[in-house]
Every structure is written in C-alpha cells, then in structure tokens.
Amino acid sequence: MMNVEEEVGRLREEIKRLGELQSDGSYKVTFGVLFNDDRCANIFEALVGTLRAAKKRKIVAYDGQLLLQGVHDNVVITLMPPPAPSTATE
C-alpha cells in the first residue's frame, strides 16, 4: 500500500496527464474525467481520500468537501502551479 505522500504525487501526475495546462502553470480536470479513467481506477483505491489529502496540503483545489461520482462529475479540480523556486537558502 502506498503512503499518502506517494498517492498525492501519483495524483499530481495523473492530473497532468488528463488535465489541461492553464496559463498560470496549473492544470484543470473534472472529477468525472479522473474518476472514470481506467489508469486512475487502478492506482487509487480511494481517489476521494487522496483528493482530500491533496487538498489539505494545498496541492489541489476544488469546491466542496466530499466528491461523489455522478453528482460531482463536473466539479473542476485544479492542480496548483508549483511554487516559484525560492532564492533563499534554508
């Protein structure tokens, strides 16, 4: 079983594969497209849980808390653009 960080990383890749790149560097995909994709279905046991974890980490954004297949197929999920590389050394 994958850990949450791994799942969120995979989710990011799948959104890039299925979504559309926006001018700000983000990607947009609808929940229905993600949910109904065979590859996603094989990777994510609990897509909704992974989305919630990613949302909590500010990696994705979407309206609502719990997404349900059918009801929320048109909800747009936005993969946030990667943070600008910081010039400060840590």
UniProtKB/TrEMBL annotation:
Gene3D superfamilies tied to this protein: Costar domain
The organism's taxonomic lineage, starting at the top: Eukaryota, Viridiplantae, Streptophyta, Embryophyta, Tracheophyta
This protein's name: Costars family protein
InterPro entries noted in UniProt: Costars (IPR044302), Costars_dom (IPR027817), Costars_sf (IPR038095)
Costars domain: residues covered: 2-80
One protein family per Pfam: Costars
UniProt record similarity statement: Belongs to the costars family.
GO BP terms, alphabetized: regulation of actin filament-based process
